[in-house]
Design a protein that fits this description.
With 437 residues, the chain is α+β, with helices and mostly antiparallel strands. It has two domains: 266 residues, BirA Bifunctional Protein, domain 2, CATH 3.30.930; 92 residues, Anticodon-binding domain (Rossmann fold, 3-Layer(aba) Sandwich), CATH 3.40.50.800. It contains 16 helices and 16 strands. Strands 1-5-6-11-10-9-7-8 form an eight-stranded mixed beta sheet, sandwiched between helices. A five-stranded mixed beta sheet has the order 13-12-14-15-16, sandwiched between helices. Helix 1 packs antiparallel against helix 6. The two termini are 44 Å apart. Bound molecules: histidyl-adenosine monophosphate (HAM). The site of histidyl-adenosine monophosphate has 28 residues, from strand 6, strand 10, strand 11 and helix 12.
């Protein structure tokens, strides 16, 4: 039997409705904040991700799925390396949405000089070659936003406020979520801070793991997130980002917190929060659900240098993304659900083969009126049609027998109360609409 790849999921039934519900909530809430939807391709040039996410990140080095056409794959096998490939032949499945949206913003000039900011949201599948486990998939779904061209700290605060409102509207109890925030500085103050952390790791080289020693050279801040408990204990004494901010970054961070306080959004400051993607500058944030044990259910931050890294004009940016699968798990752990009820339907039952044409017309008329309508396509008996209607959760059954068809009427049977009334066929759609609301 063919099987799906480990770490991927089929979305159908209630789970699919849950994903659609999440998008509906996003559309309404993000729309009120002025965001429009965007969809970028699932594959991009490798460079788009390398430039933005960072060559030294785990996402780029270990997790990005690389894509080649069948013909190129053959060449690669023969050549034994990708040396001969042109940049545009080196492709990858998107591991996240920000780099692609920013690439699109550069390509289509979404934020011309002096123009209003671009505000975009997306709901897309992402791909990361991680070891599959609960809440950690190789193909997962994110809803995310990117706000380009807004340097003001109010944009950071509004993004976070909108994110927390999103969780609330999805059914989370805000008291069971933890929002952590930090500022990672900018091009003016981060290089010196990075150097301080590198020196700290090297000073403690005999206590740190091999990975951290490698990180010291390529990405020292990632050592704050080392999976090794002892490394994390050592890093607890490392210099903190918030103690090393330049005046502008410190002021920006203070303003973000002031706006969050004014809006009554609860947060904890975590000066070791560094996030796994290199493009962040200044504000970063992450949200964890206290129940469910699925890790972060969302995260984001400011990326003021990313547009330039992707070849555009200097343009600030801020955004976040949340993971659908983790949210579904975390919400279930709180006793909630993202699932919406199955849509109501109406079943048109056929008493005998002579009435089949009448059923066909009635079914079309009901569907034309926007009513979800089912009928029998297997020549079942009337009794088993009623059974099927029950199974489908039909609220009403329209019964067409020879007497009804001759009299130009239909019998409407309420599947709960079993009450029956007759209505003229010409009035059927209006009657059914009125009854199922
Ligand atoms: P991220 O923190 O890498 O950020 O991912 C955001 C969310 O996606 C996570 O909090 C988690 O809920 C979900 N997620 C990540 N990896 C997996 C996985 N393997 N399986 C299931 N869910 C996962 C970003 O992706 C940034 N692009 C967010 C952003 C937008 N920053 C600025 N703008």
């Amino acid at each position: 039997m063919a099987q799906r790849i480990q770490g991927t999921e089929d979305l159908f039934g209630g789970y699919m409705r849950a994903w659609q519900h999440m998008q509906d909530v996003a559309r309404e809430l993000f729309g009120a904040y002025g965001f429009d939807m965007i969809e970028t391709p699932a594959i991009e040039q490798v460079d788009t991700f390398v430039h933005g996410i960072g060559e030294s990140t785990d996402v780029v080095r270990k997790e990005m799925f690389r894509v080649v056409s069948g013909a190129l794959f053959q060449n690669l096998l023969e050549a034994g390396s990708e040396q001969g490939l042109k940049a545009k032949q080196r492709m990858a499945m998107r591991p996240e949405g920000t780099a692609g949206v920013v690439r699109a913003a550069v390509e289509h000039n979404f934020v011309p000089q002096g123009a209003a900011p671009a505000k975009l949201w997306y709901a897309e599948a992402m791909f990361r070659g991680e070891r599959p486990q609960k809440g950690r998939l190789r193909q997962f779904h994110q809803v995310g936003v990117e706000w380009l061209g807004a340097p003001d700290a109010a944009a950071d605060a509004e993004c976070i406020i909108m994110l927390m409102e999103f969780y609330k509207r999805l059914g989370f109890d805000p008291a069971k979520l933890r929002l952590s925030i930090n500022s990672m500085g900018d091009a003016a103050c981060r290089p010196a801070y990075r150097e301080k952390v590198r020196a700290f790791i090297l000073d403690h080289a005999d206590e740190m793991c091999e990975d951290c020693l490698e990180r010291a050279e390529i990405n020292p801040l990632r050592s704050f997130d080392c999976k090794n408990d002892h490394c994390r204990e050592v890093m607890a004494a490392a210099p903190l980002a918030t103690d090393n901010l330049c005046d502008e970054c410190a002021e920006h961070y203070a303003k973000v917190k002031q706006y969050l306080d004014a809006a009554g959004v609860a947060y904890v400051e975590d000066p070791t929060l560094v996030r796994g993607l290199d493009y962040y500058t200044r504000t970063v944030f992450e949200v964890e659900a206290l129940e469910g044990g699925v890790g972060a259910i969302g995260g984001g931050g400011r990326f003021d240098g990313l547009m330039e890294l992707e070849g555009g004009k200097p343009t600030p940016g801020i955004g976040f993304a949340v993971g659908f699968e983790r949210i579904a798990l975390a919400l279930a752990a709180q006793g909630g659900t993202l699932e919406t009820p199955e849509p109501t339907c109406v079943y048109v039952a056929c008493a005998g083969s002579e009435q089949r044409d009448a059923v066909f017309s009635a079914t079309l008329a009901l569907r034309e009126a926007g009513i979800r309508t089912e009928a029998d396509y297997q020549g079942r008996s009337l009794k088993s049609q009623f059974k099927q209607a029950d199974k489908l959760g039909a609220r009403l059954c329209v019964v067409l027998g020879s007497d009804e068809v001759a009299a130009g009427v239909a019998t409407l049977r309420d599947m709960e109360t079993h009450e029956q009334v007759q209505v003229p066929i010409a009035e059927l759609a209006r009657e059914v609409s009125a009854r199922i609301g």
